[in-house]
């Protein structure tokens, strides 16, 4: 007899709650995270000989500290370490929704995708090469229609299978952010690793990225932990000046650019086939 915890994540309106309801039915519990108004929904079911707990994470666009929802989502991931995150992606908004997926990959937590709203995608004539997307992202990708429950069984089975395969091991994806940022990131990672600064919770490169993104929560938490925080802040300040003066941008914006660049390099490989455009000028 095993237990496994699946966290459902995704952008707002991707269908998380609908899928959560389709999966758990009436076996659910709604509460609040302590001290804040963000709702916490949990449910459970038995699948084969596994007791499956499902947590519906608050909707978020990214894993930065911009909103209470995003803070809660990442806190659940690092504090509770669910066995797998199922990232619910609106199949009709693949490019925008993959931004969050990239950050799960960078955090390293086991994650798989479900392309939800497949009925809408079909109506629009979009054809998505799910298998190829899965190969390129190196994680399982399934298709669902949360409203009808279509695909939910396959989703659950693949999720449990993949969670067992990964065995709770986090494997952070290292994206190249170009020569300027990579040099700084590597130097920061060295410091972070030597001081074991926050590395009991996060991958070192993730901490470095959060510093470059000027993440309020991480920077503030860092100050109460050790003096290495101030060295990191100084390093960031140098990179920040360099970005502003020579590239007319901020590290944060540059990081976002590279993430979208990665998404586009994947989607360009014939992942989406759109319906033929009719030329109405004729
Ligand atoms: P959440 O914000 O991620 O929790 O999204 P919801 O579950 O509240 O869904 C947002 C809207 O999309 C609701 O109106 C749902 O009925 C609708 N929806 C969810 N999944 C699907 C789907 O697979 N197909 C279609 N057509 N609509 C869906
Ligand atoms: Mg919801």
TrEMBL record:
Mg(2+) 1 binds at residue 21. Probable transporter of a GTP-driven Fe(2+) uptake system. This is Ferrous iron transport protein B. Residues 3-165 form the FeoB-type G domain. It comes from the Bacteria. It is found in: Cell inner membrane. The lineage of its organism: Bacteria, Pseudomonadati, Thermodesulfobacteriota, Desulfuromonadia, Desulfuromonadales. Belongs to the TRAFAC class TrmE-Era-EngA-EngB-Septin-like GTPase superfamily. FeoB GTPase (TC 9.A.8) family. Mg(2+) 2 binds at residues 22, 24-25. The chain holds residues 2 to 283 of 720 of the full protein. GTP binds at residues 10-17, 35-39, 56-59, 116-119.
């Amino acid at each position: 007899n095993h237990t496994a915890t699946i966290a459902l994540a995704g952008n707002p309106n991707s269908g998380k709650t609908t899928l959560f309801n389709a999966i758990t039915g009436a076996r659910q519990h709604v509460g609040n995270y302590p001290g804040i108004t963000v709702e916490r929904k949990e449910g459970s079911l038995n699948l084969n000989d596994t007791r499956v707990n499902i947590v519906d994470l608050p909707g978020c666009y990214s894993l930065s500290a911009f909103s209470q929802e995003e803070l809660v989502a990442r806190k659940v991931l690092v504090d509770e370490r669910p066995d797998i995150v199922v990232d619910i992606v609106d199949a009709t908004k693949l490019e925008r929704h993959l931004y969050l997926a990239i950050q799960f990959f960078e955090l390293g937590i086991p994650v798989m995708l479900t392309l939800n709203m497949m009925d809408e995608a079909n109506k629009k004539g979009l054809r998505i090469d799910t298998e190829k997307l899965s190969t390129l992202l190196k994680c399982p990708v399934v298709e669902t229609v949360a409203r009808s429950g279509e695909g939910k069984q396959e989703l659950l089975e693949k999720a449990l299978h993949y969670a067992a395969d990964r065995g709770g091991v986090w494997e952070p994806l290292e994206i190249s952010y170009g020569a300027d940022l990579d040099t700084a990131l590597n130097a920061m990672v060295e410091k972070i690793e030597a001081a074991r600064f926050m590395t009991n919770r996060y991958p070192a490169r993730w901490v470095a990225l959060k510093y470059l993104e000027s993440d309020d929560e991480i920077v503030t938490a860092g100050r109460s932990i050790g003096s290495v925080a101030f060295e990191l802040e100084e390093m960031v300040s140098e990179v920040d000046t360099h970005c502003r003066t020579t590239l007319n941008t901020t590290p944060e914006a540059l990081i976002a650019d590279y993430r979208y660049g990665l998404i586009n390099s994947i989607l360009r490989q014939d992942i989406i086939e759109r319906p033929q455009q009719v030329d109405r000028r004729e």
